[in-house]
Write a structure and sequence with these properties.
With 485 residues, the chain is an alpha/beta fold. 40% of the residues lie in helices and 22% in strands. Bound molecules: nicotinamide-adenine-dinucleotide.
Amino acid sequence: MQMIQNFINGSFSNAFDGETIEDINPATEQVIATIPRSKTEDVERAVSAAHSAQLTWSSLTMEQRADWLDRIADALEQKTEMIAHTESRDTGKPISLARRVDAARSVSNFRFFAAFGREQTPQTFQMDDAMNYVHRSPVGTVGLITPWNLPLYLLSWKVAPALLMGNTIVAKPSEVTPLTAHLLAQTLLELELPKGVFNLVHGLGPEVGQAILEHTGIKAISFTGGTDTGRIVARTAAPLFKKLSLELGGKNATVVFQDANMETAIDGAVRAAFTNSGQVCLCGSRIFIEESIAEQFTQKFVEKVNSIQIGDPMDEDTEMGTVISSEHLEKVESYIELAQQEGGVILTGGTRAMTGYAGPNGTGAFLRPTVVANLPYNARCASEEIFGPMVTLHTFTSESEVLEMVNSSEYGLAGSVWTADTIRGRRFASQIDSGIVWVNTWLHRDLRTPFGGVKNSGVGREGGQWSLDFFSELTNICVKTNDGI
Ligand code: NAD
């Protein structure tokens, strides 16, 4: 069992009061680590270390900081297998997925922002009698708070641009999946990143997370997590005038028109529904099918879902592992029960998976991918974020009808549209209230593009230039050049 410690001012230490929390592998239900249950005092130490490091770090050039990001990417790439195994044990996701997505993307996040930083050119605006120079400076010490579904992937998505722009960091990973954040801290120690530039405090959201939000020495909060937590973040940080980026929950739609390529649409809809056990904020959990193809689509969709191989996350052939915890399993199960009360028909799934693999207690948080039909589009199960391997199917007869159903959601993060007519696809996509819409694909990411949600899915955008803007302050310096006026 690992004994994880905080990483403050370049060294590892326990929480000031020595309290700890257990970290559980959801596939075996064994305790695999303990982490510090940090509090305000630990955040105080982390902020103080970050402040001491601020001048040194921000004095480096963008090029020098980009070199640091490349060094971090190289070091993480060397640890690909370690990251994938650690993430798989901590989350219950298949090792192949952890390797392909979590480990690979954590490396590419650092590499992308290194290259992107080097491409930046100074912005100037010439007037007849003056020149405007847009000067960027770091925000200062920033707080990064991340969820459990893509632990290192989402943390590195924030750490890389924050470091690039010259900020120092106090980060808090999810208490449910702390291991790869620790691995990142170990890597930064090995690389001898200047002390205090990156600080990691572990613990519970309402304790250490809240202390980060409240600390007046932290000038910006980049938060990814649930919408309810996002409300607390906004309520706490906004009156302190911190910069805020909120990447929150979703209830994303997959819209399949009758002219879509059936095989491609089914593959895409299944992937969108069940990747990472449906625990990706971008997952398409409401599937709208044009009525004329609904029967054929549904039959083939269910066949494909039934072919998903559930099992030991460490098995290379496993396509779906567990959900994040036994508590979360119970939450998803409560929605399966609710779906039936709401009049839904379970076409497949709905029960715990008998995988032939189970932890020492004969259990593990395995749930069969679940497909529910016959629910009104505004039923609770079709409206609330479940964040598990459960989707609802709905039919429509016209574009205007499906648009109304899609946009009835309180969320607006992502969506996908499947049609042979890409002009219609683009037009329809532009009418969906959403930060990201894919046409004939899903989770196809170019890191230069804006990422974020509308409505209850968040405020602000990350990605490419938007991340650089968030992690910097702009000053316009106007220099008069013509003495005559
Ligand atoms: P969560 O909101 O419970 O927790 C997220 C983080 O916030 C954790 O580190 C947690 O400890 C911390 N936290 C909790 N209470 C806090 C408080 N009072 N103050 C400060 N921090 C606090 O979310 P989760 O269950 O870890 O993750 C799942 C959610 O994240 C889903 O809703 C999912 O849609 C969302 N998510 C969104 C995106 C996106 O980009 N929009 C990406 C991934 C996940």
